[in-house]
Amino acid sequence: MSTDIASPEPTIDSSDSDVTSLAQRLHDCFSLIQDRRSTRTLLHQLSDILTISVLAVIAGGNGWEDMARRWLE
Is the pTM here over 0.85, yes or no? Predict the structure, then answer.
């Protein structure tokens, strides 16, 4: 007798507006951090990088590759 138990996929019980609100609040908080990088080489705002990083970790990402993969999907 086989007992194949698949682990359930994580689900979010929040509406899209709740997730958008969380993302906006994170972005607002991170925008208060002073960006000390050289302005010549900036491709992305620091607040955008930090927001995407935190949201990717919440979604189960484990590194930069997961963050990029989730962004492109």
Answer: no
